[in-house]
TrEMBL record:
<dbReference type="InterPro" id="IPR002401">
    <property type="entry name" value="Cyt_P450_E_grp-I"/>
</dbReference>
<feature type="binding site" description="axial binding residue">
    <location>
        <position position="423"/>
    </location>
    <ligand>
        <name>heme</name>
    </ligand>
</feature>
<keyword id="KW-0408">Iron</keyword>
<dbReference type="Pfam" id="PF00067">
    <property type="entry name" value="p450"/>
</dbReference>
<keyword id="KW-0560">Oxidoreductase</keyword>
<dbReference type="GO" id="GO:0006805">
    <property type="term" value="P:xenobiotic metabolic process"/>
</dbReference>
<dbReference type="InterPro" id="IPR050182">
    <property type="entry name" value="Cytochrome_P450_fam2"/>
</dbReference>
<dbReference type="GO" id="GO:0016712">
    <property type="term" value="F:oxidoreductase activity, acting on paired donors, with incorporation or reduction of molecular oxygen, reduced flavin or flavoprotein as one donor, and incorporation of one atom of oxygen"/>
</dbReference>
<protein>
    <recommendedName>
        <fullName>Cytochrome P450 303a1</fullName>
    </recommendedName>
</protein>
<comment type="similarity">
    <text>Belongs to the cytochrome P450 family.</text>
</comment>
<dbReference type="InterPro" id="IPR001128">
    <property type="entry name" value="Cyt_P450"/>
</dbReference>
<dbReference type="GO" id="GO:0005737">
    <property type="term" value="C:cytoplasm"/>
</dbReference>
<keyword id="KW-0503">Monooxygenase</keyword>
<dbReference type="InterPro" id="IPR017972">
    <property type="entry name" value="Cyt_P450_CS"/>
</dbReference>
<keyword id="KW-0732">Signal</keyword>
<keyword id="KW-0479">Metal-binding</keyword>
<dbReference type="GO" id="GO:0020037">
    <property type="term" value="F:heme binding"/>
</dbReference>
Length: 481
């Protein structure tokens, strides 16, 4: 249908079959990013843009007002439906990332409760993150730095291992060495998946008929293959857990879920497939996001040596050099805390939220939104808003620190979303970025290798943006005399 619904948000014309896909693609080619393509449309049509891409009716919110309203109203708490969202879990929507209504609420509640309680055995989340930070520093030390350049992708891969370890430890009690082949397999699958889709889906989700007409070209075959591999990987671990499961000795999330599966209070939303889907979702939502935040953090620490020095001065004053920082130091380290907030801001300012779906016919910012419309936030509208931040392109942790030296987080700071679908891993993500960064800065200096030009802040577009490969000169920090 090429006719727009009555009072639908303005946007480019809808052509038969393609809808506004060509207009969006043209702008994407021109700007290099999907988020900038929709940003360009917002300049022309206003902060609420209406699109149709293949079968999907989409509304992209590019301003604070619309973003805040949508994220906090329950009518928009749906997640998109369709082949893309079902195929990933073999025909039925499962997991917690892309599900909605009662099913999602029950499962989300269970996961959140158990993430809080980690907890399991005697190991808390802090223990896990602190252990990984220590391993990370050791790995850097083993490189025997006497002024060594590391390629950024190498650096990001290095972060990736330790981030995955915190997640996988909580879910299944497993941590890998950074040379492990199982881990490389898992990492490779996730990276491949992320390179093949967008936040708003992909070619075959917007044009489902392509699954049959062009299974390879549309990415459908590849999508199935990667998910099969990922599923097998998780299933093998679940089988191991089932063989060694003891209901009175819960080791990790998998055990807690298995216990629930055999309990009398089990609701119908609980199943083994759902457990695997939750693990898959945690990896999808938690690994690349955290790793890339760290990537942008270190990129900017190279570009802003004064930020690095101030963070190091704070680390020296609060922690000293005789022990590694811990999460207990966090409340006493506002500058480091603000650096974490700033790193996540510049990262998420280049992308979208996870799509929502209108659960019924409703309105938003004065426009009509028919049931089942996909609604998505362009976070550059909040996180990179010039009027609000003044100098959004600058990496300046001070923007989060008030006159008394306390950390303040303004409403426009939306990188983890708001409302009922708010990120479930915010605490873990911030703890990781905080502790990994503080531990490395305590021990090493990071700078632009002499004779090379400063790294670009441009990103490689994808589901989430990555920094372009860059090199850093890493040197051991001398101990204070
Ligand atoms: C810097 C890192 C991260 C950022 C910027 C981030 C951001 C977000 C955003 C924007 C959403 C969508 C909110 C919405 O749809 O309204 C979200 C949802 C979610 N995140 Fe994160 N996230 C991060 C790390 C993590 C980690 C480490 C985990 C796992 C432990 C995680 C698990 C989830 C889950 C499960 C959801 C879906 C929640 C739901 O729909 O109910 N995230 N995240």
């Amino acid at each position: 249908d090429t006719r727009k619904p009555h009072n639908f948000p303005p946007g480019p014309a809808w052509l038969p079959v393609l809808g506004s896909a060509l207009a969006v693609n043209k702008l994407r080619k021109k700007t290099g990013y999907l988020y900038q393509a929709t940003g360009e449309l917002a300049k022309e049509y206003g902060p609420v843009v209406g699109l149709r891409v293949g079968k999907d009716r989409q509304v992209v919110l590019c301003g604070y007002e619309g973003i805040k309203e949508m994220l906090t109203r329950e009518e928009f708490d749906g997640r998109p439906q369709g082949p893309f969202y079902e195929t990933r879990t073999w025909g039925v929507r499962r997991g917690v990332l892309l599900t909605d209504e009662d099913f999602w609420q029950e499962q989300r509640r269970f996961v959140l409760r158990h993430l809080k309680e980690f907890g399991f055995g005697r190991r808390t989340m802090s223990d896990l993150v602190e252990q990984e930070a220590e391993q990370l520093v050791q790995a850097f030390r083993q490189l025997k730095f006497t002024g060594t350049c590391v390629a950024c992708m190498g650096m990001i891969d290095a972060f990736g291992v330790y981030v995955l370890n915190t997640l996988w430890s909580m879910l299944a009690g497993i941590r890998y060495s950074h040379t492990d082949s199982e881990l490389k397999k898992l990492q490779g699958l996730l990276t491949e998946l992320f390179a093949n889709i967008d936040m708003v889906g992909c070619l075959f989700s917007q044009f489902p008929v392509l699954r049959f007409l062009a299974p390879e070209l549309s990415g459908y075959k590849q999508f199935i293959y990667i998910h099969q591999k990922l599923w097998e990987f998780l299933k093998a671990e679940l089988d191991k857990h089932k063989q060694t499961f003891k209901p009175d000795e819960l080791r990790d999330f998998m055990d807690a879920y298995l216990k629930m599966l055999s309990s009398e209070q089990k609701k119908s939303s609980f199943s083994e497939s759902q457990l695997l889907a939750i693990c898959m979702d945690m990896f999808m939502a938690g690994s690349e996001t955290t790793t890339k935040s760290l990537g942008f953090c270190f990129l900017n620490l190279l570009l802003y040596p004064e930020v690095q020095q101030r963070a190091q001065a704070e680390i020296d004053a609060v922690v000293g050099r005789d022990r590694l920082p811990t999460l207990n130091d966090r409340p006493n380290m506002p500058y480091m805390e603000a650096t974490v907030l700033e790193a996540v801001r510049v990262f998420m300012g280049k992308t979208f939220s996870i799509p929502h779906r209108a659960l019924k016919d409703t309105e938003l910012q004065g426009y009509n939104i028919p049931k089942d419309t996909m609604v998505i936030c362009n976070f550059s509208g909040t996180l990179m808003d010039k009027e609000f931040w003044g100098d959004p392109e600058v990496f300046r942790p001070d923007r989060f620190i008030d006159a008394e030296g306390k950390v303040v987080i303004p409403e426009q700071y939306t990188p983890f979303g708001y409302g009922k679908h708010r990120c479930m891993g915010e605490t873990l993500a911030k703890s990781n970025v905080f502790l990994f960064t503080a531990s490395l800065l305590q021990n090493f200096n990071f700078s632009i290798p002499p004779g090379t030009s400063p790294p670009s802040t441009d990103a490689i577009d994808g589901v989430t943006p990555s920094p372009k490969p860059f090199k850093a000169l890493v040197t051991l920090r001398p101990l204070p005399s």
